[in-house]
Write a structure and sequence with these properties.
Blueprint lengths: L3 E3 L2 E5 L5 H11 L6 H10 L4 E6 L2 E14 L7 E12 L8 H15 L4 E7 L3 H9 L3 E6 L9 E7 L8
Length: about 170
């Protein structure tokens, strides 16, 4: 089983028992919420890219992704296998400790192993901290979707080419 330590934090695959904690983190950390079954569905579909960060046995962050086939965000008219970073969150008191970066890096490594050629995500245009993190890891803004979120805010689609195996570290 994969596991990586980041200081006092253990990064590991999400288990079925972790799902209630992941849902709770999503509820307090993000304005976008999903039905409970969606979390379990993603864990079943793409377990290699659904990771949690834990400290002292408590889940304090997560990343959940899915592997998809579709049009490339980087190369026009190309159909590709890509990783979609659906959601990532770390509890506020555990932020700025490298956890989000490592969750992203490890999910991207898993996408590369699954032969994805790009990774992408949607992010609120106002979320400057997240946008900065994604840019540091090599993501670029590839499009903007107006009125993407329920409150009417737009989203940037940010994409990372995995062709050269870059995982930001």
């Amino acid at each position: 089983m994969f596991a990586r330590w980041v200081g006092e934090y253990l990064i590991r695959p999400c288990s079925e028992d972790d799902i209630p904690s992941v849902i709770a983190i999503n509820m307090v950390s993000l304005p976008e919420h999903y039905a409970d079954y969606f979390f379990e569905e993603l864990r079943r579909e793409s377990p290699e890219t659904f990771l949690v960060a834990e400290k002292n046995g408590q889940v304090v962050g997560y990343i959940m992704c899915r592997i998809e086939y579709g049009f490339s965000n980087l190369k026009r008219f190309n159909l590709v296998k890509k990783g979609h970073i659906v959601s990532i969150a770390v509890l506020e008191q555990h932020r700025c400790k490298g956890i989000g970066t490592v969750l992203l890096q490890e999910a991207i490594k898993a996408m590369i192993k699954k032969r994805c050629v790009e990774a992408y995500l949607e992010v609120r245009v106002s979320n400057e901290g997240a946008i900065s993190l994604y840019k540091r890891l090599g993501f670029v803004v590839t499009s903007k979707i107006d009125f993407y979120y329920k409150d009417g805010e737009a989203a940037y689609v940010m994409t990372l080419s995995l062709d050269r195996g870059s995982a930001g570290g």
